[in-house]
Design brief:
Layout (H helix, E strand, L loop, with lengths): L5 E7 L16 H16 L4 E3 L7 H14 L3 E6 L6 H9 L5 E6 L12 H9 L2 H15 L4 E6 L1 H22 L2 E5 L13 H8 L2 E5 L1 H10 L2 H14 L1 E2 L5 H20 L4 E4 L4 H7 L15 E3 L4 H14 L4 E9 L4 E6 L11 E6 L14 E6 L3 E11 L2 E12 L9 E7 L4 H11 L5 E5 L3 H11 L2 E4 L1
Helix pairs in contact: 2-3, 3-5, 6-14, 8-10, 8-11, 9-10
């Protein structure tokens, strides 16, 4: 799950003004800058752990700060000029700091706290408030160095912190992606070539290492699952959800056992996201079903998506890291022009743990008439709860990843599509037909992650940090 990001705080001032105002009741330049720095630390600590090396005055200070930030392994850096200052520290930072997300801010004020500069204290305040001068000076070097992952923002402190919070969350997801592994079990879906991605590109651009899991390892793990554990899980599911009367007890146990085994091999191989080709004939022949209760009751460390779509898995993983909420995997089924909405959902494993959703334990009717050993084995049949949702698509095109996101309103509905976790959705902006016209023009696939809440700002920042193409509809 999401960890609290670590922020490096880079505040730049000038030694030329450091001694100005010594002995003044209102404080000298340096004391005023220390008070301002303390405010930034306090504000940033509301959403980040702060690594602050002290105010930067000299070349030696910035060299030490760079070493400090790298030793602390910060996820991102909040940088700001506290007044006008020489730019030798800033250009050294731009040149020498290892690649890291940088949020460069400029503070504005509602009013100026002096009327003229005749008094020394007002003159010190005039110089102290000159952050705009420093920012403009710094902006030219930002353009010259053209560092990746550097964004700029101007506003009052609360406005800066709102933007910085979104940026910090995006930076934390970037760090999580670079330290996680996805597992593919056991192959891409060969009837959906548009969902294929380059595993090397996935590692290089997005971050996760891809590990290949086998059906043989899954079947071996299934055989090792304790029967008492299966019965305990079934008891939890039976107490929590309605079990439809045509559910076979043996097949219920088999679905639970396979779900437990899938999570178990993921943990053993160090995988936090399993991209399962749940319609693979080998899986269905050897296991006899597709696991139907993922995540298993009481767990949240392993996420599973169906149909061998790594881009879809990446979308779900990103939304889960940003939100710390259950994320559904959907594909749009059909448009209802009269209601200006579309039905969407997906068969196979899907996160069913949102307490506001509606869940029934039902047969997987799609495979009920097949010859597989556990044909029709049950699953958590889930209706996505109503409310504002962020819908995110990720895929690869010509060596570049693309993210496409939009806000939709999930509408109240009952279970109406058998064997598919599902919901009804209406675009927040425009008509449903306009939405899909834009998606088709962009060029996507049919798979999306969807989560409660608005995460479009964070996704916009994350796309910049990952160098993904980005569209918001």
């Amino acid at each position: 799950m999401q960890r609290i990001p670590k922020a490096g705080l880079l505040l730049i001032a000038t030694s030329r003004f450091r001694e100005l105002g010594k002995g003044l009741v209102q404080g000298d330049y340096e004391s005023r800058k220390k008070a301002e720095a303390a405010q930034y630390v306090e504000e940033l600590e509301k959403f980040s752990r702060v690594a602050f090396p002290g105010i930067i005055y000299t070349r030696e200070d910035v060299d030490s700060a760079i070493q400090f930030f790298q030793a602390e392994k910060v996820d991102w850096i909040f940088a700001l000029f506290l007044s006008w200052t020489e730019d030798f520290a800033w250009v050294r930072f731009l040149r020498d700091m290892a690649p890291v997300p940088v949020f460069f801010g400029c503070k504005t004020r509602d009013t100026i706290s002096f009327t003229d500069t005749n008094e020394e204290t007002d003159f010190v305040e005039f110089l102290s408030a000159g952050g705009l001068v420093g920012t403009l000076e710094a902006s030219g070097s930002i353009k010259r160095f053209n560092r990746s992952m550097l964004v700029t923002s101007i506003g009052k402190v609360d406005e800066l912190m709102t933007s910085a919070r979104h940026f910090a969350q995006a930076a934390a997801v970037r760090s999580a992606l670079r330290s996680t592994s996805f597992g593919l079990l056991a192959s891409y879906n060969e009837v959906m070539w548009s969902t294929y991605v380059d595993p090397y590109n996935l590692f290089m651009k997005a971050g996760p290492e891809l590990r290949f899991l086998s059906v043989a390892s899954l079947t071996k793990e299934i055989d090792s699952i304790d029967t008492k554990l299966v019965h305990n899980v079934r008891s939890i599911l039976e107490k929590q959800f309605q079990v439809l009367p045509d559910v076979d007890a043996e097949k219920f146990d088999a679905s639970i056992r396979a779900s437990l085994a899938l999570e178990s091999i993921a943990r053993k191989t160090g995988v936090s996201m399993v991209v399962l080709n749940d319609v693979d004939p080998v899986l269905l022949t050897e296991v006899g079903l597709r696991p139907g209760f993922l995540p298993c009751p009481g767990t949240e460390d392993i996420t599973v998506v169906p149909e061998g779509d790594i881009g879809g898995g990446l979308a779900v993983y990103i939304l889960k890291q940003l939100s710390e909420k259950p994320v559904s995997f959907i594909e749009p089924f059909h448009i209802d022009l009269k209601q200006n909405c579309f039905a969407g959902g997906h068969a196979g494993p899907n996160d069913y743990t949102d307490p506001d959703g509606s869940v029934r334990i039902a047969r997987d009717v799609r495979f009920a008439k097949t010859n597989y050993k556990y044909a029709g084995a049950p699953f958590a049949w889930y209706v996505i709860p109503s409310g504002l949702k962020t819908m995110l698509h990720v895929s690869e095109c010509n060596g570049r990843f693309k993210m496409v996101c939009t806000l939709v309103e999930a509408l109240p509905c009952e279970h109406f599509i058998t064997s598919y976790s599902h919901g009804l959705f209406r675009p927040v902006s425009g008509t449903v037909q306009e939405l899909f016209q834009k998606l088709i023009q962009i060029g996507v696939t049919q798979h999306y992650g969807i989560v409660n809440g608005d995460y479009t700002r964070e996704l916009s920042y994350l796309a910049q940090l990952l160098d993904f193409d980005f569209e918001i509809l």
